[in-house]
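Record 1 of the preview.
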Amino acid sequence: MNRVGPVLSANEIGRAVSAALVQHNSDVEVQDRGAYLRVLAPRRCALTREAVERTLGRPFRLPIDLELVMASFSGAFSVTEEQAVWTFEVPDD
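->
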């Protein structure tokens, strides 16, 4: 299965982002590697600003605050001020 998602710093914001991803996506796996968290979901993983704010308990700005904790990611990535999405895309031949 082609899994996608972010690699996040294992700090307060990174943990809030990973918790929001688990709550709002199906079949999400979080691999805790100590210094970082690898979040993987099948084919599509979506994050909303609102979900992180509920989990974090304070304002969260996309893409600025996400960029501060996202070291890397798998899949294609798109982001607006309201939502970040990681998707699996098959390359054109």
